[in-house]
Amino acid sequence: MGVLTTGFFVSFLGVLGVSAELIAVVQVVRHGQRTPVRFFPTNKYSDRSYWGNLGSGALTNEGKRQHFALGQYTRRRYPNFLPLKYNASSFLAYTTDVERTHMSAQSNVYSLFPATDEQVWHRNVNWQPIPIHPISIDEFWGDSSCANFYKLRTEALNDELSQSINEEYAEVYKYINKYSGLDIRSYYQIHTVFDDFKIQEDVGLPLPDWAKAVYPEPITSIAGWFFEVFSRTIQMKRLIKGRFLNKVVEYFEQMAVDPSSCEKYQFYSGHDSNIASLLNSFGSFRPPYPPNFASTVYIELHFESWQHVVKVFSKDGDNVKQISVNGCTLSCPLSKFKEVLSEILIDKETFDEECSNIKDTSALKKFLLADSNTSRVTTEEIRKTSFLT
């Protein structure tokens, strides 16, 4: 097609009103900066007085500012898509039932939709209450009641890749154990040290001298594998992100048929593991890394070139990039988006069947690995370790 013909064709499409149009957005965020969830035994900053008397895992003022700033970025990103004033028919927000994700969502949504005109209910306040709906961990994260997932994760933590990683960093583990008071045998146990050092560094608390040999590297790289192992296999991706992605696909299919059928922007406030497992499910988490506070993923549905396409963008700090979903083009046709995720997508009934839907977590004990080799990681050890960070 010649240049003049191409130009005429593009102009003709514009006249017909079929130029590129943003139809819907799903945004997933990690909460803002928090206090450490736990401290390694020799950490001298374990007293609450160092953290403004906040409890463990509590959102800091900096965390609130991070999400306020992220909301401002989102507003700039979608200046003609998001309405200037909040209305429930255009925007829907969800959060996990954890204080720091609730508060992060509130900070973010406030910067998106400050009260104006008739929405102002107090002359000295431009804040307005906007509903943040709870979403179950089973639906959004994937493993709180899924006994099979713990079994699969145990297997992943003992597979050849895990053994190779642990062999590579065995001397690092010994060094950290010497000074931290921990007994690290696997990369899944490194998160406490990484998390403590990262947050202390962020707030200006000096790190111990011994940390210089292992932080930021190789601890940061080791911690990346901690997040990768949540969704290493197809089956794990199904159980940890399949229900959520199935919901996204169904939402996009509905919006493709009738853009007025429901809200055009959905917001989910969650955790670093949400971001990591989502990117890993998209085939875009290599090399693995620990997602920063207030990192986010935007999943967009567009109508362009006579078809509906999906575009995905990740933002971690100031780094914003578009990602390819499992090898699909950057503007991935919606039907192809569904196809490349087909092995992962799962509905609630299938999820319950594959998980056995065991709500009594004591039943997990039957999945303990019978192995006399104490270097192996057992399901019970994993069950006792909080991964909700």
UniProtKB/TrEMBL annotation:
Specify whether Heme is a keyword of the entry.
no
Which PANTHER family does the record associate with it?
ACID PHOSPHATASE-RELATED, PROSTATIC ACID PHOSPHATASE
- Which protein family is named in the record? Belongs to the histidine acid phosphatase family.
Name the Enzyme Commission number(s) assigned to this protein. 3.1.3.2
Q: Which GO terms describe its molecular function?
A: acid phosphatase activity
Q: What is the official name of this protein in its record?
A: acid phosphatase
Q: Which SUPFAM superfamilies match?
A: Phosphoglycerate mutase-like
**Which terms are listed as keywords in the entry?**
Disulfide bond, Glycoprotein, Hydrolase, Signal
Q: Any signal peptide, and if so, which residues?
A: 1-20
Catalysed reactions, semicolon-separated? a phosphate monoester + H2O = an alcohol + phosphate
Question: Which Pfam families does the protein's record reference?
Answer: His_Phos_2
Q: Is Glycoprotein there in the keyword field?
A: yes
Q: What CDD domains does this protein's entry cite? A: HP_HAP_like
